[in-house]
Design brief:
By secondary structure, the protein is of the alpha/beta class. The protein has 2 domains: 106 residues, Spore Coat Polysaccharide Biosynthesis Protein SpsA, Chain A (Alpha-Beta Complex), CATH 3.90.550; 108 residues, Spore Coat Polysaccharide Biosynthesis Protein SpsA, Chain A (Alpha-Beta Complex), CATH 3.90.550.10. It is 37% helix and 21% strand. A 7-stranded mixed β-sheet has the order 5-4-1-6-10-7-11, sandwiched between helices. A two-stranded antiparallel sheet has the order 2-3. Strand 4, helix 3 and strand 5 form a beta-alpha-beta unit. Helix 4 packs across helix 7.
């Protein structure tokens, strides 16, 4: 009888500990109305809904997050989300980086981890986002400041394209460097290294994100114009997770056409 009570008591304490230390994870979707190559692209129609509303709804549909917010400097985008029952936060119109915009938005929100979903990538995948959230749930030592995604590349054109950001990592999958140049540099022609494209979806520990927003830019970030290098330059650890995810990033009207064609295929497959 007494032993049975002890077992029940131990189980209760374990469950209580799980509740106490459960991470609160939210998703934030930065959404600027202005875009140099495709102004107003987030309000363009993808099927019968806007790009930004599609991204928001698909992010909510994953079921991975305690809450989902769109963060925007545009009243048009803010109204688009809220009138459709979503949550949106107005931010300052000018920020140095996307991390700064997210830091402003989440400073007073109750959360432990913030996942940054790109507003112009509407076909967000649960598998990819789930890898990011699981990384923090399994981080018992609290080593990870950020987690992000990478995909293997085979095309020499992409590897040498400065608009394609590359990443490599150590044996524990922590990032060594991000660069617009091929890394590692292919000095030996008889050896073919593996190259990985960085996919710009991040999960931040909230305190690391807020710390980032207070730190001045250093040399590597200034030279490469890659904000993630600031985290590395200040000694924060970035976990890199390989994924097969490859959405359609909408940067041009041609991208929107491809996205609409892809959406029609998805809708046809569901019928």
């Amino acid at each position: 009888m007494f032993g049975s009570k002890c077992v029940k008591s131990s189980a209760f304490l374990v469950n209580l500990a799980k509740i106490k230390f459960r991470l609160k994870i939210i998703a934030v979707i930065p959404a600027r109305y202005a875009a140099s190559r495709f102004p107003g692209k987030l309000m363009a129609l993808l099927g019968d809904r806007s790009v930004i509303l599609t991204t928001y709804e698909n992010t909510v549909r994953t079921g991975l997050f305690d809450d989902v917010f769109v963060v925007t400097d545009s009243e048009i985008i803010h109204d688009e989300i809220t009138k459709n029952g979503g949550k949106a936060i107005m931010s300052l119109s000018e920020h140095q980086t996307g991390s700064d915009r997210i830091a402003e938005a989440v400073e007073n929100l109750d959360c432990d981890v913030v996942v940054n979903v790109q507003g112009d990538e509407p076909f967000v995948k649960k598998e990819a986002l789930g890898k990011l959230t699981e990384a923090f749930k399994n981080d018992s030592e609290n080593e990870i400041s950020l987690a992000t995604l990478a995909q293997k590349m085979d095309s020499d054109e992409d590897i040498n394209n400065p608009n394609t950001v590359k990443v490599n990592w150590d044996i524990n999958n922590f990032a060594l460097y991000f660069s617009r140049s091929p890394i590692p540099y292919p000095r030996e022609t008889d050896f073919r290294a593996d190259y990985y494209r960085h996919i710009g979806i991040y999960a931040f520990r909230k305190d690391a994100l807020l710390e980032f927003s207070k730190l001045p830019m250093r040399q590597n970030e200034r030279a490469e114009k890659l904000e993630q290098l600031r985290y590395l330059e200040y000694g924060m650890k970035i976990k890199v997770l390989e994924t097969g995810f490859m959405g359609i990033e909408i940067d041009t009207p041609e991208d929107l056409e491809r996205a609409n064609a892809y959406l029609k295929k998805l809708q046809t497959a569901d019928q």
